[in-house]
Amino acid sequence: MPAAAQLFTESDALKPLAERMRPRTLDEIVGQARLLGPDMPLRRSIEAGRVHSMVLWGPPGCGKTTLALLLAKYAQARFRAISAVLSGLADVREALTEAEVHFAQGERSVLFVDEVHRFNKSQQDAFLPHIEKGVILFVGATTENPSFELNSALLSRCRVHVMDAVPASAIVEALRRALSDNERGLGTMQIRIADAALELIAQAADGDVRRALTLLEIAADVATDGVIDETTLTQVLADRTRRFDKGGEQFYDQISALHKSVRSSDADAALYWFARMLDGGCDPAYLARRMTRMAIEDIGLADPRALQLALEAWDTYERLGSPEGDLALAQLAVYLAVAAKSNAAYAAFGEVRGVIRDTGTLEVPLHLRNAPTKLMKGLGYGKGYQYDHAVEGGIALGQQCLPDTLAGREFYQPTDRGLEAKIREKLQALRAARAKARAG
C-alpha cells in the first residue's frame, strides 16, 4: 500500500480532531465543488491517476494539504511533505535526492511544499529540473497570490488551482460528520448540540474547516454532561477573529475595497471595509494615511473640506488612540464616501508630469524671469512683464506664463460636481478672456 494511503487508515487517539477527520476520499472534501465536484476536469484527472504538478492557492483550512495527500493516494505515489517555514535548501535537496532514488525504481513521488511562497528564488529554482524530468509531482500550497510570490519559471511548469474559503453550510456538514463518526470523530462521546450552535461555530471558523473542528473539539472537552450549550460556546468563541493577513493578499484586497467603496460613494460599504480592517488588526494610522490620500485623489477640489477633515481625523486619532480615536476615522470614511468626487486635479497633475517627461527642459519665458543684475536686464530678463495687481481687473490676461511650445495648453479640466462646479465656471471665463486677449 502506498505511504499516502497508510496515513489515511492510521488511527491515533492522540491526534487533534481536525487531523483525525482529514478526508480520505474526494467526496469527503467539503466546499470545493467548483474544483472537485462530479465531472469537474481536475476531479476526473485525479481519479484517472493523471496527476500534474500544481500550485494550490487558497486561505487556511480550505483543504490544500488534504488534496495533496489524496493526489498521492489516487496516483499510487509516495508522499513527501516539507514546509517552507521550517525547511531550507538542504532539506529540499534531501527530498529531491530521495525522489530520484524512487524514480529510478519506477515509483513516482508527490512532493508537497507547504507555504511555498516563503521559499526564495534559488530554493524555488531547485525544483525545476526535477519537475521537467517527471521525478516529482510538485504540489505547492500558498495563501498568497502566486503571481506575486512565485517565480515565473516555477509557475510555467505548474497549473494554479484556486481553492475557495469553505462556506459555513459546508463547514456544518464537516462538523456533523465529526459528531457522528465513531471511529475517528466524537461519535462515541454522544455530544448534544443544537443546529444553531453548529452554525455559530461554522461562522466563527470564517471559512476554515480545521479551525471549526478545533473549536468543536474544545467545546466537547469543556461541555457539561456532553451538552454544548450557549454558555459553553460563549467561552469557546470569545476570542475568535476574522481572516486578515497584514501585508498579504487579504490586506491589499480589503484596502482596495475600502478605497473603491469611497470612490463609488457607498458609505455603508466604506464603513464596513474600514471596520473589517480594524477588526483584523490593521494599524489605524495606516488607514488614516490612506484615507487622506483618497481625499486628495478622488475628492480633490470638488470638496476641499475632505482633506481638512482627513488631517483633523488623523490628528484626533494620534491624540486619543484606540478605541476612542477610531470613531473619528470611521466618521471620515463616511464623509469621504458621501462627498462630491473629482479626480480632475489628480489627472491634470499626472498629465503635466508626462508632458515634462516628454518635452524636457523648456525655457522659462524671458518676461517671467527675475533680473537682479545689469547683465540679466541687458539680456531681456523681465522685459515686458505685467504686474497683475497694477492692471485693470487684477489679471494680466494677455500675459503668457507657459513655455512657448506649450502656450494655450489646458491641463486641468474641472468637473461640474461640488465646489469644483464653481471653479469650472471661473476657469472657463478666465480661459475665454485670455484667448480673446491673445487674439486681440
Task: Give the fraction of residues assigned to helices.
Answer: 40-55%
Span between N and C termini?
96 Å
**Number of DSSP E strands:** 7
Q: How many separate helices?
A: 22
- At the third CATH level, what is the topology name of the domain at 31-162? Rossmann fold
Low-confidence stretches: 1-10
Q: What is the makeup of the main sheet?
A: 5 strands, parallel
SSE pattern:
HHHHEHEHEHHEHHEHEHHEHHHHHHHHH
Q: Beta-strand level of the residues, as a percent range?
A: 5-15%
Structural class: alpha/beta
| Shape assignment | elongated
Tell me the CATH superfamily of the domain at 31-162: P-loop containing nucleotide triphosphate hydrolases
Give the averaged pLDDT, no decimals.
Answer: 89
CATH secondary-structure class of the domain at 31-162: Alpha Beta
Strand order of the largest sheet: 2-3-4-1-5
CATH architecture annotation of the domain at 31-162: 3-Layer(aba) Sandwich
Rg over CA atoms, rounded to whole Å, is: 32 Å
